[in-house]
Predict the 3D structure of the following.
Amino acid sequence: MNQTIRPYLSRLEDLFSFSPVDAQTVVARFQEDMRRSLDGRASSLQMLPSYVGRPTGAEQGCFLALDLGGTNLRVLAVRLDGRGKAEITAVNRLAVPESVMRGSGEALFDFLAEGVAVFLEEHRLDRKQHRDLAFTFSFPVAQSAVNAGVLLNWTKGFTAAGVAGQNVVALFSDALRRKRIEEVSVTALVNDTVGTLAAKSYADPSCDMGVILGTGTNACYPEKNGRSAQGRFPQSRQEMILNLEWGNFDKLDANACDQALDRITLNPGRQRMEKMVSGMYIGELVRMILLDMTDRGILLEERHKPVLAGEQSVSSEHMSLTARGKDLFAAIGIPDASDRDRDAAARVCRIVSRRSARIVGAALAAVVAWMDASLEQKHTIAIDGALFEKYPGYPENMRSVLEELFARRADRISLCPTSDGSGIGAAIIAAVASSGREQDPAASRKQTRKNR
Ligand code: GLC
């Protein structure tokens, strides 16, 4: 590596360092924000009630699930056998076009309802049979019941107009009726983190946290009744799963690259942790750094700039290629980069992804220690998302923070890849909810009338 790249990269290394001391500070700040939120004071963490506790494994039945959380929509049929086993019996997947993500709310919900209509038809489901649907809607929602909740604000590049401030179950139910789908009722509204926790804890009672590390990042955990969640949720149950919306945590030290990225996003000032961690943003951080290096004349050549100038031209999948020894530049349309350039890009990816994983490790530690300060018990953390599953070295970087913070007791934390929280997990939540206790009374009344 030549003389000019070397000092640049070591400065970058410093800028993106996240030391063991930083991790300790973050744990304290994170728990302080958890406490503030539960006490009803201003906080960057939302701790949103889900109106359900963890499943027992005995939940059973057949459910539809609709999963909207990023650039793909999935419609699924799920069967739960009541003995901790679950299977997906049918699934359709379709891309959500950008025009739908950023158009009108009505068009977005019509798109979802159309997805259900096509699914019912393609899989020849009996249109006379009543079906319960679990709606995985992975955005910050203030729920008032397991099947009702108001979107607080969009994240992950969605901006569909007229949805924030509205009950998304009502908007979706209206769209189903517009499509003449009368037999489907939305009985549960589920965040993907909650679905992930449910999917794992259905068969493993030691699971007490659900984490998403994909396009966005977030986590949930079961809060015990009796802790000081004054007035935040009904106290009549043993525990309630709370959605932390940790992507919005804002007590991390953001560097100049983070500030520059935040300025070009659709939601500046918000989702600050998500912008340092998740798949949707870390590729952008790398792209902006590589572009800056090219601007300074220490990487690539002038003619390569247009590729790097295009927003989203580097993704976290591209970054993970470098960890497998592949060429990031070839993957983004620059086939003639020198070995020196490739090595520099691989190092930039390592610096950015390592910080991402270490921040997640610290946030995760904060939540585990909140539940069990001296780590007396075993904790299984259900984790879904490509960063955790497909980025070589990412889980190890998360673990290194747990070991720094908890020493040998870190062994009590298992990080478990868990897929299909948004499908199977959501169906489990619908089954938990079908006891009827957690339902929005208005929605259940409507339902009862219809079923007569
Ligand atoms: C974003 C959403 C959150 C979701 C996460 C992972 O942070 O706000 O609700 O859980 O992405 O999909």
Notes: The chain has two domains: 5-46+207-239+244-417, 60-190.
